[in-house]
Amino acid sequence: MRAPSLIVFDLDAACWMPEMYQLWGGGAPFKQLSTSPNNRLEDCRGTAVRLLADVAASFAEIHERHTSGEPIMAAVASRSDEPAWARECLRKFVVAPGISMMDVVTEDRCEIYKGSKKAHFAALQKKTSIPYCRMCFFDDDPYNIRDVATLGVHCFHTPHGVTAQIFARGVKACTDGGDAGTAVFE
């Protein structure tokens, strides 16, 4: 049996826009505008929060592979200014019929707080026992990509959100377990 792998996502500007801090005067509660992939939410002031690129399909793929028995899991490593809002969005963004982003990552694998992304990864490693070389990370911030790569994590820069192509490269890197500590910039 293959060793387990962990796919880790930043949230603001990697999975959705706008970033939570940009919802000044708005925020929770969020309302679902649709329940189809790449759906949108609306905050209490009517500002739309939308999933970027192929995020919904990426989360749906992880869910499908995990439920079919493949040892693959998802997690979140985010410094979002509004952790409660981010968790609400994770619960309300639907990535497949009846499946939310939170269903895929689970509350236990959501590291959402200020501080170093290295601290997020240390917590995830402790909770999952998955070695860094079996993890990949998607983030829009080049600093975070370089920093986390020093742990041995396969890191991928996502300046326009997680695309299908970059997602496939990340999953392959962590499931194959080779060349750990890479930082890929597109």
UniProtKB/TrEMBL annotation:
SUPFAM superfamilies listed in its UniProt record: HAD-like
InterPro entries this protein is in? Answer: HAD-like_sf, HAD_sf, HAD_SF_ppase_IIIC, MDP_1_eu_arc
Q: Please name the Pfam families in this protein's record.
A: Acid_PPase
GO MF entries: acid phosphatase activity
NCBIfam families recorded for this chain? HAD-SF-IIIC, MDP-1
What name does this protein carry? Magnesium-dependent phosphatase-1
Origin organism is Chrysotila carterae
